[in-house]
Amino acid sequence: MKKLLIVLLFYFIPFSAISQSGCHVFGKIKFVEYGEDYKVKFVDYGEDLKVKYVSYGEKNVGKWKSVEYGEDYKIKVVRYGEDFNVKMVSYGEGCD
Fold first, then answer.
1. pLDDT digits (tens, 9 = 90+) for 41-74
2. Three-class secondary structure of residue 83 per DSSP
3. What residues contact residue 83 under an 8 Å CB cut-off, 6+ apart?
4. 33: left (phi > 0), else alpha (psi -120 to 50), else beta?
5. Are 26 and 59 in contact (CB under 8 A)?
6. Residue 74: how many other CB atoms lie within 10 Å
7. Using CA atoms, how far apart are residues 6 and 93, in angstroms rounded to an integer?
8. Cβ-contact 12, 48 below 8 angstroms
9. Sign of the CA dihedral with 35 first, then 39, 43, and 49 last
10. Closest Cα to residue 47, out of 10, 13, 22, 24?
């Protein structure tokens, strides 16, 4: 029984790590060149997360406030090798 549990554990962990949608990334965001928490690619379609930049009220899914310090997450913008795709929107922010 223990062997079965270990095999199942190692089987499902990699798949859950690959399927990041970025829905949990909201709040105060600092854009960095290195030392990032996540790598994102900005796209026009095929997004995992729709983001709206805000001045306040950033504690909701899909709302980002750009800051220089006191960040919740550090984000690096990349062209490839991203953790998830982001689309900038004026309304309808969040995950589908």
1. 999 999 999 999 999 999 999 999 999 999 999 9
2. coil
3. 20, 22, 38, 39, 40
4. alpha
5. yes
6. 15
7. 39
8. no
9. negative
10. 22
The radius of gyration of the chain from alpha carbons, rounded to an integer in Å, stands at: 16
Distance in angstroms (rounded) separating the CA atoms of residues 95 and 55: 20
Taking the C-alpha atoms of residue 57 and residue 3, their distance in angstroms, rounded to an integer, is: 48
* Residues making up the chain, counted from first to last: 96
Residue 6 corresponds to which amino acid?
A: I
Q: What is the pLDDT of residues 13-22, one digit of tens each?
A: 444 444 468 9
Domain boundaries, the chain: 21-88
Residue whose tokens read 């310090």: 69
Q: What is the pTM of this model?
A: 0.76
